[in-house]
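Hey, quick one: can you model this chain's 3D structure?
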Amino acid sequence: IVIILLVLPFVNALTNVGVCTNIPVADTYSLNVSINGGTADCITIFSNHTYLNLNGKFVSTGTSAKSIYVNASVTSNVTIVDGFVNKSKWGIVINGSNVNVTNITAFNHSSEALSFYGFHNQLYYSTGNYSFNNLLLSDLGGHIVNGSLFHGPTANRNNIRIDGAGNNTLI
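Sure thing. Here's the predicted structure for all 171 residues.
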């Protein structure tokens, strides 16, 4: 019994997500169905130390909202992995800093598929397709983009757009 009590504080909880939601508490979240936010942002992250696994599912909204939004209050250790964001105005918008986005496919957005503001955000092995701008790097910079592909921007727009952001690394 003593061993169990010592181990329990170190076990991370897993919260299943089946509807659009705000994420105000640090935890591991797992999307268990594809979801659509209608006219509102679908998933908004307000907490550091948050891991969101989309599990190959889709997150989308209407034409005036974000599929996934990371609030500016986030400053460390947020990870979004393994899924799709599509058919929204914006796919993933990162206003926070030190956010890692890995293995995400973002497509068919009327504005940016992937938007990185804040500072030191990372994008690994992801794809932006058929959106107004497939990738926007803006504001403070220091972003890392590694092993990602961007193609087919709409209306002769930009695959990668860099606005006022310095010290970016694209590999």
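One thing worth noting: The longest strand covers residues 78-86.
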